[in-house]
Amino acid sequence: MVRYGELSTKGKNRKDFIGRLCGNVERVLADLESIKIYPKHDRMHIVLNGASFEEVDKRLKKVFGIQTYSPVIRTEKTLAAIKETSLEIMQATYKVGMTFKVATKRADHRFEYDTNQLNLMVGDYLFDNLPEPKVEMKHPDLVLRIEVRQDAVYISNQLLHGPGGMPVGTAGKAVMMLSGGIDSPVASYLALKRGVDIEMVHFFSPPYTSDKALAKAKELTGILANYSGKITFIAVPFAEIQETIKEKLPEGYLMTVQRRFMLRLADMIRQKRGGLAIFNGESVGQVASQTLESMAAINNVTTTPVLRPVATMDKTEIIRLAEEIGTFELSIKPFEDCCTIFAPPRPKTKPRIDKAIEYENRLDVDGLLQRAMDGIEISTIRPNEKFIDDQTADQDLL
């Protein structure tokens, strides 16, 4: 039994949100052919039909839009059946010395017993049939939950937590500027959690960046795809732009102008693919290109919303979340991306917009952008897809 999170606040859009959540659940459980899914107004029922609950549990933990869920047994709406099923569930999990309580919800108010009566009758039955039972109302070890609904009674004593958030796809589509570092995968996770269907835009600069740097970005996308089913990955060649900027512009503005080109390209891809916004992994004050002055100078090239989910998080918070979602160990592998390869030693921390525009006027901006767009490579990344040979990668680190 799956319980919805923020969907309860969505009013007239609730049906669409539940439909999207159901589709996302169907995708993550697609290979478990025996399973049947029944989405309803206030609950989703997943009938296992012999499928492994442990496998379903592992996957549901990564479906945004799920607040809580429980393995339940569906039983008849008779007092005898409720008592017998309750005892069966408790005997499977109860250990001597544990405390418990019974908590009933009654959606079917025509049922002959009210919640207090059921709590007392089932509690007494368990007390008579469990070894050394102890009742605790405030902080019990086990809570036996009985839900009396129109079609049947559902009983469980486990309450498991989903990731919350909104179903991916309910907040529209956007592009994510994904590097190979720690921050942008975390920003991607937070965007997905708010229901945004993201497509990854990754800039690579061969021969300055290796094939492993590109593979690393794709593999990070594969980890994040656990939360959305699959993600489109768009690789953008960036070497010519970086070479040209380094050759013709002052060192202090190399990073600013590079980032302005990146944002222009991300915006062109967004427009071409029907996105509504651009996300990135910038955190205020973390590096020279992420001061407010730098962000203002870079953002000047577009009116499209640029959203930064980790903008106010410090590095410790970002690392903790990266460890939780499983991207940290891969992010710290030293396969350098194009941002680090061409990073100037003394970038401007307070670049001026007029100066950035003046320097760009020395370049064939339109030609550089078009050639980069002509060279993009688009692929689909699926959950946990591998692109790095771990043995070869380990040898490279020695």
Describe this structure in words.
Belongs to the ThiI family. Residues 54-159 form the THUMP domain. Its main location: cytoplasm. The chain has 398 residues and is α/β, with parallel strands linked by helices. The protein has three domains: 2-69, VC0802-like (2-Layer Sandwich); 73-157, VC0802-like, CATH 3.30.2130; 173-397, HUPs (Rossmann fold). It is built from 15 helices and 16 strands. The chain has helices at residues 14-28, 53-60, 79-93, 115-129, 183-193, 211-224, 239-248, 254-272, 292-299, 315-325, 328-331, 338-341, 353-360, 365-374, 390-397; strands at residues 2-4, 36-39, 44-47, 66-69, 73-75, 99-106, 134-135, 142-148, 153-156, 160-161, 173-177, 197-204, 231-237, 278-279, 306-307, 377-381. Strand 8 (142-148) and strand 9 form a beta hairpin. The longest helix has 19 residues, at 254-272. The protein is elongated and about 85 Å long. The two termini are 49 Å apart.
Give short descriptive properties of this protein.
single chain, 398 residues, alpha/beta, VC0802-like, Rossmann fold, six-stranded mixed sheet, five-stranded mixed sheet, 15 helices, 18% strand, disordered C terminus
What is the number of beta strands?
A: 16
Q: Please estimate the helix content.
A: 40-55%
Number of domains: 3
Number of helices: 15
Rg calculated over all Cα atoms: 27 Å
Write the layout of secondary structure elements.
Elements: E1 2-4, H1 14-28, E2 36-39, E3 44-47, H2 53-60, E4 66-69, E5 73-75, H3 79-93, E6 99-106, H4 115-129, E7 134-135, E8 142-148, E9 153-156, E10 160-161, E11 173-177, H5 183-193, E12 197-204, H6 211-224, E13 231-237, H7 239-248, H8 254-272, E14 278-279, H9 292-299, E15 306-307, H10 315-325, H11 328-331, H12 338-341, H13 353-360, H14 365-374, E16 377-381, H15 390-397
Parallel strand pairs: 6-7, 6-8, 11-12, 11-14, 12-13, 14-15
Antiparallel strand pairs: 1-4, 2-3, 4-10, 5-9, 8-9, 13-16
Helix pairs in contact: 3-4, 5-10, 7-8, 8-9, 8-14
